[in-house]
Design brief:
Layout (H helix, E strand, L loop, with lengths): L5 H4 L22 H10 L15 H9 L2 E5 L18 H6 L10 H17 L1 H22 L3 E5 L12 E4 L2 E4 H4 L4 E6 L2 H8 L7 E6 L5 H9 L4 E5 L1 H10 L1 E4 L7 E7 L13 E6 L24 H7 L1
Parallel strand pairs: 1-2, 2-5, 5-6, 6-7, 7-10, 9-10
Antiparallel strand pairs: 3-4, 8-9
The structure holds iron/sulfur cluster.
The site of iron/sulfur cluster (SF4) has 12 residues, from helix 4.
Length: about 325
């Protein structure tokens, strides 16, 4: 088992919810059941929002690799629900989206449930956030408090929304959701370079980790995120995946034009991105439809010329 990084071990964030006694009120609801009843009365057929940590094979690897149980929220990606949740989605990423992972026999039901959740998020935000809060609290109590197991939340498992600015009103006081669970790690992938750069600059909540996703149409954003010290995930062919991990680095274009060497990390070993070294490139092996991708989403070619380090490039810029 890998150890959690020191930054996680030494978290000093306050755990706002640990101060709360039983019977508090979130967005006007005193329990998950009350918020669910309200949602159902408005036609939103929802029972639960977060998937169990074991229910996503990719995320479940965390339990084996880094002793962290990740609880994920799956919404309906792009505008499947009639509401856009990932405005920066590309043709290539949509085809490789985690949304379609899992047993096809359950896909229809899964899609209906994700559409219902997404519609509730947009149409009944207060009740949705209350359900989310109470479920997060239940996971926190079950794993973190009772079993002493580290947990994490991945709220954008199949969306790309600014959860860092989502608030809940607890007993009349508005607080950021991530602040309420200050000791718990949140993490996501994003295709918004401004969010990834904000994270790299330390301007996101301390317990939120963001990895930028490379797609077929965002090379300039990739260069910018890495230049600012952020991390980037990319899908590559099996041969490139192997080669890059063997050599330990990958050369990518920079905003100045000259390629730079970045540390390469095996993204298939686990999905708990907060333990990746900063300013690295996370390589994932193409799976499913990504193997035959023709959009350019799957990296099939490497830069083979001379590359410099980021610090040398910054000094020369
Ligand atoms: S942006 Fe993410 S969630 Fe949206 S379609 Fe692409 S891979 Fe799926």
């Amino acid at each position: 088992m890998a150890q959690l990084p020191a930054t996680l071990e030494k978290r000093k964030n306050k755990m706002l919810i640990s101060k709360l006694t039983k019977g508090f009120n979130v967005n006007g609801f005193t329990s998950k059941a009350a918020a669910i009843r309200y949602l159902k009365s408005k036609g939103h057929n929802i029972c639960t929002l977060l998937a169990q940590p074991e229910s996503n094979p990719k995320v479940a690897k965390n339990g084996k690799v880094v002793e962290v149980m990740t609880c994920a929220l799956h919404l309906a990606p792009f505008n499947l629900s009639g509401f856009q949740v990932c405005a920066k989605a590309s043709q290539g990423c949509a085809a490789a989206c985690l949304h379609t992972a899992g047993n096809p026999a359950y896909m229809d039901q899964k899609e209906k449930s994700r559409i219902a959740k997404t519609r509730a998020y947009f149409l009944e935000r207060d009740a949705f956030m209350a359900v989310l809060f109470f479920e997060m609290l239940a996971h926190y109590r079950k794993y973190f408090v009772k079993q002493g197991v580290e947990i994490a939340f991945r709220l954008n498992a199949t969306s790309d929304l600014p959860f860092e600015s989502r608030k809940v009103t607890i007993d009349g006081k508005p607080v950021l959701l991530m602040e309420a669970f200050g000791k718990i790690q949140f993490y996501d992938y994003t295709a918004f370079d401004n969010r990834a750069i904000k994270f790299a600059k330390g301007d996101m909540p301390k317990n939120y980790h963001i990895t930028f996703s490379k797609k077929e149409d965002n090379d300039q954003e990739v260069a910018r995120v890495l230049w600012h010290g952020g991390n980037v995930a990319m899908v590559a062919t099996k041969d490139i995946y192997k080669h890059v991990l063997e050599q330990g680095y990958i050369a990518l274009p920079s905003p100045t034009g000259s390629p730079i060497k970045y540390k390469a990390v095996d993204g298939d070993a686990h999905d708990f991105r907060p333990i990746d070294p900063s300013n690295s490139v996370i390589i994932l092996k193409a799976k499913g439809d990504a193997k035959t991708d023709t959009t350019g989403f799957t990296v099939r070619k490497l830069y083979t010329g001379k590359a410099q380090t980021l610090s040398a490039a910054i000094a020369a810029a």
